[in-house]
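Entry type: protein chain
Record version: 2
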Amino acid sequence: MTYAHTMAGNGAFHTAEDIAHRLRRVRRLAWILDAAFRLPGTRFRVGVDALVGLLPVGGSAVMGLVSLYIVWEAWRLRVPTALLARMVGNVLLETVVDTVPVAGDLFDAAFKANLRNVALLEQYFGQTGRTAP
């Protein structure tokens, strides 16, 4: 794997182990946010994001801010700006659509922006994607 292009905030290069550790951490968070609970009688999974998003007014905004943590970690890993923009776009799309009652909640539960963003990071760094920790 090539990680020489990824520098830490202090100018030192991130090690492969550091990148793998950060990816595991954001993968766990994404799984909790997007897929932690199985709907009874189905194979469909939802996470804390979909449940908190059901709260009127602020639920979607709060979960959008939490989702931006994964983007912040990607920024700290110095991924390309185009990849960061795509990740922010995923979070914004999910957050904005989630403000629509009922249909937005269904979209939020199906779109899973956090798992998508982790998959983008894993693809960029050449890691195999997983949806569960």
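Comment: The first strand starts at residue 37 and ends at 38.
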